[in-house]
UniProtKB/TrEMBL annotation:
General function of this protein: Specifically catalyzes the NAD or NADP-dependent dehydrogenation of L-aspartate to iminoaspartate.
Gene that this polypeptide is encoded by: nadX
Enzyme class, UniProt record, top EC level: oxidoreductase
Binding site for NAD(+): 121, 187
Taxonomic source organism: Larsenimonas rhizosphaerae
Aspartate dehydrogenase domain ranges (all copies): 165-252
Protein name per UniProt: L-aspartate dehydrogenase
């Protein structure tokens, strides 16, 4: 049996996910910016429809993968859910906006559908969400990336990225603030918050490190379960140094779950 999926956004991550789709999963439709549709349709040929809205999509996807960035989730997420289609979300930071979160929940109720928050570039979200059931005391999250990975973000206004010679913390605040101020770089802050103690209570530190080529994520949690510290040092995608390879792989895993009887 073949499962047809749809993708919102076909940038660095979308292309990597497409390349690694498991056997039995095919990409049937892509939603992209209107300006990008024609060239992308030419590039991909007729087997994949490239459209600019949910309404124009002629396939009924088994799963919709949002790989479009926070504005893409805002633009199309609710329409997908109202259609009754399952949505896997990678631009999780957009959910730090309570109005969007509520809109997506309403749309899911209307369409009898659901959206899944993907773990993305980090690990341990299963353990954190389980620990929450017993009560969590503190959760902190630190992201450490090279200057080129922060370039073009809000970090440019906080620190001279091209002049740092030692690791430097340029942002400390809540997960909600981080996720919305750094839409292409701090989605994980919102993921950790949603799995744990929420957008306000999750403490976030963002670090620029001129000595690293990795995207490193460190999560420390304490609670009734005990405590854990997880550090994940990921390779950035070549096509976009802001984005970790593992984030794309977590989208591939969501597709794998369509074709395996045992869910892991
Ligand atoms: N949860 C996580 O761990 C992570 C999440 N992300 C999220 O994934 C997003 C995608 O990452 P990349 O592929 O590396 O970014 P990218 O910038 O290479 O690709 C984004 C694609 O989405 C398209 N797009 C933008 N707005 C759209 C809209 N309104 N409708 C349809 N398509 C639209 C763009 O044209 C582009 O092709 C990031 O912006 C970020 O929000 C990235 C890394 C980690
Ligand atoms: O891919 C990463 O390392 C994390 C990232 O960009 C995000 O949280 O938005």
């Amino acid at each position: 049996m073949t499962h047809t999926i749809m993708m919102i956004g076909y940038g660095a991550m979308g292309r990597e996910v497409h390349r690694l789709l498991p056997e039995g999963v095919v990409l049937g439709c892509i939603i992209e910016h209107p300006a990008a549709c024609e060239a992308l349709q030419r590039e991909l040929g007729d087997d994949i429809a490239v459209v600019s809205s949910v309404a124009a999509c002629r396939v009924v996807p088994a799963l919709v993968l949002e790989c479009a960035g926070q504005p893409g989730l805002r633009a199309h997420g609710a329409d997908v859910l109202r259609q009754g289609w399952s949505l896997a979300v990678i631009s999780v930071g957009a959910l730090a906006d309570p109005a969007l979160y509520a809109e997506l929940c309403r749309a899911a109720e209307q369409g009898s559908s659901r959206f899944e928050v993907l773990a993305g570039a980090v690990a341990g979200m299963d353990g954190l969400a389980a620990a929450r059931e017993g009560g969590l005391d503190t959760v902190t999250y630190e992201a450490r990336k090279a200057p080129r990975s922060w370039q073009g973000s809000h970090a440019d206004t906080l620190i001279a990225l091209d002049r740092v010679t030692e690791p430097a913390v340029f942002f400390e605040g809540s997960a909600g603030e981080a996720a919305l101020l750094f839409p292409a770089n701090a989605n994980v802050a919102a993921t950790v918050a949603l799995a744990g103690v929420g957008m306000e209570a999750t403490t976030v530190r963002l670090v620029v490190d001129p000595h690293t080529t990795r995207n490193t994520h460190r999560i420390v949690a304490t609670g009734r379960f005990g405590e854990f510290a997880i550090e994940l040092s990921g390779y950035p995608l070549e096509a976009n140094p802001k984005t970790s390879t593992l984030a794309a792989l977590s989208v591939v895993r969501a597709c794998r779950r369509l074709v395996t009887p045992a869910l892991i």
